Amino acid sequence: MERLAGWVILQWGARRALLAIVAGAIGNLALAPVNVFAAMFLSFTLLVWLMDGVASAPESGLFGKMRSAFALGWLFGFGYFVGGLWWIGNALLVEADSFAWALPLAVLGLPAFLACYFGLATMLARILWSEGMGRIAALAASFALVEWLRSWLFTGFAWNVIGYGAMPVPLMMQSVHVIGLFGVTAGAIYVFAAPALIGTRRGRVPGLVLALALFAAHLGYGAYVLRQPLPAPGTSALAVRIVQPVIDQAKKMDDREKSEVFEEHLKLTVEALAADQKKPDIILWPETSVPFILTENQDALTRVADLLDDNQILIAGAVREEDPGPGLPTRYYNSVVVIDGRGNIIGASDKVHLVPFGEYMPFEDFLTGLFGVKAVAALPGGYSSASTHRLLELPGGLRFYPLICYEAIFPSEISDEAMGANAIINLTNDAWFGNSSGPYQHFQQARIRAVETGIPLIRAANNGISALIDARGEIFSGLGLDVKGAVQATLGSHAMPIWSNRDRIIHFWLIVIAFLLAAAFSRIGFNFRTN
What we know:
single chain, alpha/beta, Nitrilase/N-carbamoyl-D-aminoacid amidohydrolase, 2 domains, 6-stranded mixed sheet, 16 helices, 45% helix
């Protein structure tokens, strides 16, 4: 290990750059659908040794040192994000005539921008870089801070946060309920980077002992939680049916196919039940499954009423139209609507966190006026966003907390109001991304929201992955990617959460502060020894 560490540390120029990109790309093997979390150990061990090489380089002045550290982190991030987000280009090929020109921007431009966050992380870590375990703590704190920053700056893009690589299975997910996604990220990066100590001796024993203790606590807490029985759902447990129609995105966008798209959802809704199944109480259709404005199509509501019993409820994704008044343009919302057995719309909630360049165009007047570009999935003028999530109140006192599409990747989108919900529902349409790693990544991140909050998750996706997930991340019924059909299961109960969102935020900051203090003390000691 020492010989390998020495070789990596001494690399420079093009070799160092290529090695940084490869190290970042390797980290993607820890994410869905591969889920080999051990890949992160190699990825971050290489990054530490590369940082050692940068830290020992003879660049003059603070600016030169910071520039080299930023460049290394940027290269690492570029490899990570290209390897993890290449599938975004599929969305541009749905309407290739209009958007194929933007393929390089999606596949390379977005990763190049996101890599700046990792560059900032290594630059911050460089300030506290020293020998031994202190540099591992500095890296963990810096990356956790910038991953948190990435989740909200410029509307946020919390896709493939590094902490997800430490949570491939329920045993390794339970810690997220206590310390949140970014707390897990901080601890995971320390553990992932700790093997670098084997190759550089100083601080090896205490650094590795701490890493083993953190990893053991992560697994031990998971094992403890999974041994505890969930409360029984009771005799009034809900039967939930999820419809997964697997409709090609190009067909969904074709006005001539609207009737057939709607009929396909109706057909799957009443698909024959197994002999031991009762009629579903709740039926879920995916995001934008209704291909027209419901309030303008009474026939569609009548068809739904004819299909459902009086005590059944349909929850569906639809576009909602709103007239703001004379002289003002019509507003459109990506929404979840609740329809009862009589065909009445009894509830709705609009999407809050829209996808930039997908559902709306930032700086629309400038970009559309000058270049003629438009958002990929939006109606003319783009979607409007709601100011807050609305809890869906259903008959019988049921309460569902809606997250539409990629809202499920943001822990911050789940307010304390969700704590009283019977379930989180995530309606999405991942058909934009084809048969790629994108839908698997999206599903895994939505799954973590159930564990984080201790609330079951019901996920309906157009082409998959649809599932009912319990409060500990266990999948107890579902349909795989591109499997057409409907799946039904009984909705379980809460895990009765102990920790709140506020608690998780506090725990995250305590972890970061602890790592920063460890890095600072190590740096002070390092300066003392070298002076």
